[in-house]
Design a protein that fits this description.
alpha/beta, Rossmann fold, globular
């Protein structure tokens, strides 16, 4: 069965390219995760920023060849139902895990300005994380960006809205395995 892709979607990262990027990032992270097991005797905690990072997170953790604990939180940084409209502040829900002395990997789908990653990383440190690193599928290279993630599958110049592989077009097509950008439709 073929997936219906709207005419104003341009595929920028086909599914095979996404899979290769995820595996590369996993291999970058693996030594750090293994070091935590050896030195501290505990698993790295990978913290998924829901909803957008869910597919990247799942595939990434499966590709890391050492045991990793999964955790989840939800950050609200955009206005609901409006592509690209940032909310006034960032709200974090569901981060009730004990982070004391833990290596924490914050995993998100995209880094635009970096606000979510900056604030969530600071929150993890404030809750006792010994070290915090970040991983994203896409780092959007824009002048407003104030943060550079530690691990990045793809770097993208441009302001187009992404959809697919967890990212949504007003809650549509998050389950598509490729990543697309939306062209303006004029209406």
């Amino acid at each position: 069965m073929n997936r219906s892709v709207p005419g104003h979607y341009d595929e920028v990262y086909p599914a095979a390219t996404v899979a290769a990027g995820v595996k590369r990032v996993a291999m970058e992270i693996a030594p750090w995760a293994a070091e935590g097991l050896e030195r501290e005797g505990q698993q790295m905690l990978a913290l998924c920023v829901l909803r957008g990072a869910v597919f990247f997170f799942s595939d990434l953790l499966q590709a890391i060849p050492v045991s990793v604990e999964a955790g989840f939180c939800r950050c609200h940084g955009y206005e609901k139902g409006v592509n690209g409209q940032m909310a006034e502040g960032l709200r974090v829900d569901g981060l009730e895990l004990d982070l004391t002395g833990r290596r924490v990997l914050v995993v998100d789908d995209i880094c635009d300005t970096g606000r979510t990653l900056v604030e969530l990383s600071a929150l993890c440190r404030a809750r006792g994380a010994s070290e915090v690193r970040t991983a994203v599928l896409i780092h959007r290279l824009i002048p407003e960006s104030r943060f550079t993630p530690d691990h990045v599958a793809f770097r993208y110049e441009g302001r187009e809205w992404f959809t697919g592989y967890g990212m949504d077009d007003r809650s549509w097509r998050t389950n598509y395995p490729s990543v697309y950008v939306l062209r303006p439709t004029g209406g």
